[in-house]
Write a structure and sequence with these properties.
Its cofactor is Zn(2+). Pfam families: Peptidase_M48. One of its GO terms (molecular function) is metalloendopeptidase activity. InterPro entries: Mito/Outer_Membr_Metalloprot (IPR051156), Peptidase_M48 (IPR001915). The chain has one domain. It has 8 helices and 4 strands. It has a 4-stranded mixed β-sheet. It is mainly alpha-helical.
Length: 237
Amino acid sequence: MLRLTPIFLALLYGLAMYRFSAWRTARELDARSTELVDPILGVLTQQMAQALDLERIKVYIYEVAPINGLAAPDGRIFITRGFFNEYRKGKVKADELASVIAHELGHVALGHSRRRMIDFSGQNAARVVLATLLGRIIPFAGVWIANGLMRLLSAGLSRRDEYEADSYAAALLTRAGIGTEGQKSLLAKLEALSGGRAKSAPAWLMSHPETSERIAAIKALELRWSQARLEGDSEGS
């Protein structure tokens, strides 16, 4: 039982840290956000709401400059002021910004916030176990190796979530009659919009997949859906 105590404490610590982070994020968003009001985006979000059998989808503007979209742990969807300004300048089209909203809706619908809480707590416990075991075999370096392995795991899980949210968004945009062209075109220009920052880590350590791979995954989905429709039409004729 005593051997399990550090693992149990690590789980509790991870859960407490995640809860605190979610609380702090919610307070920040409450203080610096207002509901997004735009006639064109309003039409597109209403199309998505109808596709989801919802009365409406509320989207908020988070008053920060970086270009980003986010889904809060409480399920609210946010677009940053920086992103919205690019839309107002004409650098981002309405269907492209709608694809960001659809992507964040995917994170909410697929329960990624809840999954991240579980993953974070589990990874924290696994880090303690690995650091303890490796520390006995490789003194001093054990903790460093354990942290590196957990970083690899965390990045991989984050990339999985992004692919899933992309797939959800593609399906929702298609069902809503908006289509995926805006989703693909935004991904292609996102790096330039965000300042074209150079990669600071190898692909396997990145929290988001390569842009080309995300676009390829959406195209693969479209091809699969197209083939399924053709097969359905041939069976019905």
